[in-house]
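Structure first, sequence second, as always.
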């Protein structure tokens, strides 16, 4: 019997290599787990047939294009879209290690949201407590990994959509340095922020999957080759590592006491493991990160989503009148409230006469946030804070209040704006729900993040299997 709840991707690969199980048996174990638990959780929008082979199965967020497999981005607009090519990340996953696409995971529409409740196909539920959200926008990927429906998954992160759901579901998730992973074939939300990255059960699997994804892609001119190869972490000590604690990110009033306590214990562990721990300050990042993001991301989204007009791409209304009416109705019927809200805000911020005041100003602030982080990295190797101010919240708790929903990403957005990598590592429970630790490093510091994440993970000994499945 293969226990998919506990099996890591590394273990699965070894079982196959040693001929203890076959590729078919492994695939079927995940299919059984999906049949058993996904009717309640709704992690998958599409489950694939076994393409054959011995590679480890991989769940893929539904904003990532997959050849011959529906790719909806959680939107009615793309309900019938079946790409004729694979996104580069999928090509790399298949080519490098024969990974097999197990299915497409639920997401907030066009990755806009923090709870997966903005999906046009209904929400995903948190495996730790199905009355609660799994986070978002990549709630499907995170919940699938924590419920043992997939050994690992691809997510995409614009302002926190890998890190935050990983925190709420108790996974390890990496948002990579901007430019290290190709966006070719990925449904665009905000192009200067979007990054694909891995979600896994532990740091080593996460690091391995990152090594498969990362590198220069001639089809995405914003990508670069990694300055040094990915290293799988194996060190238990943090001797010589300088860990910075940004006070604003650790003492903010929005942080729940249970989250604060778990993160505090992790900070103490850093010292015990030999790290040099000190405080620092990122005042601009916390005050201006979120407002600045909610100008730049919608501005870019309004431009990226202009292609869904029922002619070039996407759903077309069945009862079109004249040309203008056809555009209007197709967009009105095909898009949900959140994309519409962002298209309105973004179009406004980019309009003549307002461009400098909003978009131009936000870009200047963005540069200041990057500088503020760079200054902190003169003294520290990594910065540590909670990933999310709260544990998983109840379904419906924030749907009526977009601003409350936006605040879920208070702590994840600033480093995204600065183009920096961030790793979520589970650091304990609060009220029986996972708490995530966010580790931020300078550009291209993924190996360092894996090293610190691995040492903490080993010392913390978090059990990634939700209590109700044990
Ligand atoms: N929750 C944030 C938003 O709604 C981030 C989403 C993301 O990273 N894709 O924009």
């Amino acid at each position: 019997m293969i226990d998919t709840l506990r099996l890591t991707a590394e273990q699965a690969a070894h079982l196959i290599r040693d001929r203890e199980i076959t590729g078919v048996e492994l695939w079927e174990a995940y299919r059984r787990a999906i049949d058993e638990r996904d009717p309640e959780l709704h992690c998958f929008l599409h489950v694939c047939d076994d393409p054959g082979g011995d590679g480890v199965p991989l769940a893929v967020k539904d904003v990532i294009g997959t050849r011959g497999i529906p790719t909806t981005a959680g939107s009615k607009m793309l309900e019938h879209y079946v790409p004729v090519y694979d996104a580069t990340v999928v090509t790399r996953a298949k080519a490098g290690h024969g990974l097999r696409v197990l299915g497409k995971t639920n997401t907030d529409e066009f990755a806009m949201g923090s709870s997966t409740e903005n999906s046009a196909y209904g929400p995903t539920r948190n495996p730790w407590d199905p009355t609660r959200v799994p986070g978002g926008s990549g709630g499907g990927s995170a919940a699938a990994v924590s419920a043992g429906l997939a050994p690992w998954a691809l997510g995409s992160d614009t302002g926190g959509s890998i890190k935050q759901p990983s925190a709420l579901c108790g996974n390890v998730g990496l948002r990579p340095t901007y430019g290290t992973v190709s966006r070719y074939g990925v449904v665009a939300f905000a192009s200067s922020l979007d990054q694909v990255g891995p979600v896994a059960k532990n740091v080593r699997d996460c690091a391995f999957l990152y090594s498969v994804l990362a590198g220069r892609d001639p089809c995405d001119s914003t990508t670069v080759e990694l300055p040094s190869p990915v290293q799988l972490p194996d060190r238990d000590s943090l001797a010589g590592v300088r860990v910075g604690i940004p006070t604003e990110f650790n003492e903010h009033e929005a942080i729940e006491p249970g989250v604060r306590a778990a993160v505090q214990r992790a900070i103490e562990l850093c010292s015990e493991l030999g790290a040099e721990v000190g405080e620092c300050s990122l005042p601009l990042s916390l005050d201006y990160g979120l407002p600045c993001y909610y100008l730049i991301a919608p501005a870019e989204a309004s431009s990226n989503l202009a292609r869904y007009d029922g002619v070039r791409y996407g759903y077309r209304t069945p009862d079109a009148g004249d040309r203008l009416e056809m555009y209007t109705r197709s967009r009105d019927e095909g898009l949900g409230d959140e994309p519409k809200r962002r298209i309105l805000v973004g179009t406004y911020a980019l309009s003549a006469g307002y461009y400098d005041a909003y978009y131009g100003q936000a870009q200047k602030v963005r540069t200041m946030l990057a500088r503020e982080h760079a200054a902190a990295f003169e003294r520290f190797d990594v910065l540590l804070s909670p990933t999310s101010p709260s544990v998983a919240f109840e379904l419906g708790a924030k749907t009526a209040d977009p601003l409350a929903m936006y605040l879920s990403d208070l702590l994840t957005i600033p480093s995204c704006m600065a183009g920096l990598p961030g790793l979520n590592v589970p650091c304990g429970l609060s009220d029986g729900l996972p708490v995530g630790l966010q580790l931020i490093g300078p550009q291209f510091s993924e190996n360092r993040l894996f090293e610190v994440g691995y040492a903490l993970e080993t010392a913390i000994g978090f059990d990634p299997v939700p209590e109700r499945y044990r």
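Margin note: The two ends are 15 Å apart (CA to CA).
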